[in-house]
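Continuing the series of single-chain predictions for the mutant panel. This is the parent chain; the variants come on the following pages.
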Amino acid sequence: MNLHQTIPTRPPLYAVTLIDRRTGYPHRVNGAALTAFSRDPAQAARDLLAGRDPNQWHTRILPLTGH
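Parent structure:
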């Protein structure tokens, strides 16, 4: 790479967690919060909510930083 080339950047990474609206807590599977890590958080949220009642579930999207 020469000095005039730029390093390609990737979209930021996000943690998308499934939240139970009744409790306000993350849904857990074997004690671990159900979380997807994705560079496309909207698609990850759709995937986590697929087949679930939107009155009972929502997602929390948090950006992950490398700092």
